[in-house]
Design goal:
By secondary structure, this protein is an alpha/beta fold. The chain contains 13 helices and eight strands. Strands 5-4-6-7-8 form a five-stranded parallel β-sheet, with helices on one face. Strand 4, helix 4 and strand 5 form a beta-alpha-beta unit. The longest helix is centred in the last third of the chain and has 29 residues. The protein is globular and about 75 Å long.
Length: 396
């Protein structure tokens, strides 16, 4: 690959792990496992983490003990070295070029076709964000058409039924009939945002948002989304939605983002302008994820070359050129809070089991690397087991 600082060779051939020329390893966060790592880690090996998916896919990586083992990061957090926070926003034109279904038609569909004001499509029904509990409570106070496996009360049309059809134009047209789309993420973490949050702007609806505490930073304007954290109880949220649903003028204010001049969020514009990848045309939109990853490959390549150049300068004249310190990730690059229930409940509920398991995995991983382990398969039997056995003894 040809990058700003020079060229690098990238490969998925694991046989090159111990090649003397190998300098870096890029890991895909969801697939990274502590018992499958390129050990021993040599002093010149640089580790890079690419992780734009849900933190629940690998809780280990949200803890500082694991994060400090990486030199370079590309995550959904804006603090990472190569931020992927906007990876579900291809182009703001996607929000404005397709007109919304007229409000008169949406009102007719509610009255004559018995559509609810709100649509909910979800099939992952046991999530760290506990969104299903909140939706179930919200349903007591306002009508919601639920088409997924979670709280299902309405059958999805056959032509768009199935996971592979959820990106189809027909599915988007289907969502566009509703005034409000539930946009609840499966986990709560700063800047973790998916198509659930941004798709309503494409189809012409108002998102009801649960997820990143910083999601308002990425909205088109100050009045384009409804945030559950702004309401003390789902009952209050339902009252507000009913008010908008019955007041066309007020609802239209939330739809103003369909006019480009009403996308007034300067932070959003700046972030999209300065992000290190670009969408240049239809082909690029299809291969958006590939472009992000290829860009991160070059980011890592450039940092490796920079370090090699600094080391050469140090060897040539140590008195003038101190050795370069290694780059190290910090907890802000991916850290997420402990999951909790979405609303108060008398039930005995623990949403944190996998979260705390991730902490033990992170600590065991750090111990394994500090010990200079050469056999990655010993992670479970030697390092993780020691920690969990100590915990079991403490509990007893």
């Amino acid at each position: 690959i040809s990058c700003n600082k020079g060229a690098c060779i990238t490969s998925i051939d694991r046989g090159l792990k111990n090649d003397p020329a190998t300098r870096g390893f890029i890991f895909y966060g969801t697939d990274l496992r502590a018992d499958d790592l390129p050990l021993p880690r040599r002093p010149w090996d640089e580790w890079a983490l690419f992780h734009e998916e849900s933190p629940k896919n690998n809780w280990m990586l949200t803890f500082e003990d694991a994060l400090v083992l990486f030199n370079h990061t590309a995550t959904f957090r804006r603090e990472s070295d190569y931020p992927l926070s906007t990876h579900y926003i291809k182009d703001l034109a996607d929000w404005t070029e397709t007109p919304a279904v007229p409000i008169e038609e949406k009102n007719r569909l509610q009255k004559e076709e018995s559509l609810a004001p709100i649509i909910y499509v979800q099939s992952d029904c046991h999530t760290p964000s506990d969104r299903e509990r909140y939706v179930k409570e919200l349903m007591k106070y306002i009508e919601i058409d639920s088409y997924g496996r979670c709280l299902n009360n309405r059958k999805m049309p056959e032509e768009i039924d199935g996971f592979l059809k959820l990106q189809s134009p027909d599915y988007y047209k289907f969502l566009a009939q509703y005034k409000f789309n539930i946009a609840f993420e499966n986990a709560v973490c700063n800047d973790y945002m998916t198509e659930k949050l941004f798709r309503p702007f494409e189809v012409g609806a108002v998102p009801i948002v649960m997820g990143s505490p910083l999601a308002k930073d990425w909205m088109p304007n100050e009045r384009s989304g409804i945030f559950v954290n702004d309401f003390k109880h789902p009952r209050e949220l339902a009252e507000f939605i009913r008010h908008l649903n019955s007041n066309d003028d007020e609802y239209e204010k939330y739809m103003a983002y369909k006019d480009p001049k009403h996308i007034t969020n300067e932070f959003l514009h700046k972030a999209l302008k300065e992000r290190p990848w670009r969408v240049l045309g239809e082909w690029d939109k299809v291969n958006f994820g590939h472009r992000m990853y290829a860009g991160f490959e070059c980011h890592v390549c450039d940092r490796v070359i920079e370090r090699q150049e600094a080391l050469r300068a140090h060897h040539l004249d140590p008195s003038k050129n101190p050795p370069p310190p290694p780059r190290t990730a910090s907890k802000e690059h991916l850290a997420c809070p402990e999951p909790t229930v979405s609303i108060a409940t008398d039930e005995r509920v623990n949403k944190s089991v996998n979260f705390w398991e991730g902490l033990y995995e992170a600590r065991a991983l750090k111990k394994m690397l500090l010990a200079g382990e050469t056999d990655t398969t010993k992670f479970l039997s030697k390092y993780l087991k020691r920690l969990t056995d100590k915990y079991d003894q403490w509990v007893r």
